[in-house]
Design brief:
alpha/beta; five-stranded mixed beta sheet; two-stranded parallel sheet; 7 helices; 7 strands; globular
């Protein structure tokens, strides 16, 4: 993977939100009935609806660094040790907050304040008034659409257990 060489200025790691339980595999409602993500705000969604918005790309579970002086964010190809690198699912989802001190829970209030959320993220897109992307599992009915669209980090990342310094693994392919 190409890395983006940079001097090591003052920056801090960014905690990753929990990625939700992933899409439920159900396609959008039929004609005449609008899907929940078009009729509700993020804050109005049920827990199941909220969690189904996560497309399972795995980008939230990668280490990130924020420059303290500018707020600019560098992404790495280094994943949390509990991210399954093939499925992009958390292997310890129910215990993740006990196991990872800086794993945060993404909430409707937080979404608009996290500039590092990927531009493809359903939470971010809906918060910005945009539609879900065509490849989103809620529209396609299959989780594999994320991988086919080239959005998943599966096969492109390494575990933090195999890395000495995540800052040596900064990448520019996450937007």
């Amino acid at each position: 993977m190409p890395t983006k060489p940079r001097p090591k200025p003052s920056r801090k790691p960014i905690a990753a939100p929990d990625p939700g339980s992933r899409a439920n595999g159900k396609a959008a409602p039929g004609p005449g009935s609008a899907p929940f993500w078009e009729t509700k705000t993020l804050a109005q969604m049920t827990k199941a609806e909220w969690e189904s918005l996560c497309d399972g790309c795995g980008k939230c579970c990668l280490h990130k660094f924020e420059y303290e002086d500018t707020g600019e964010v560098d992404h790495t190809n280094v994943a949390c040790r509990y991210l399954d690198l093939n499925t992009c699912r958390c292997t310890e989802y129910k215990k993740r907050h006990q196991l990872v001190d800086d794993c945060i829970s993404l909430t409707a209030k937080l979404v608009g304040n996290l500039s590092w959320l990927p531009t493809t993220c359903a939470y971010r897109r809906l918060d910005e008034g945009k539609k879900l992307p065509r490849w989103h599992p809620l529209l396609t009915g299959t989780q594999d659409s994320v991988r086919r669209a080239g959005v998943s980090v599966a096969g492109r990342v390494i575990s933090e257990d195999d890395v000495d310094d995540p800052e040596d693994h900064i990448v520019d392919w996450i937007k």
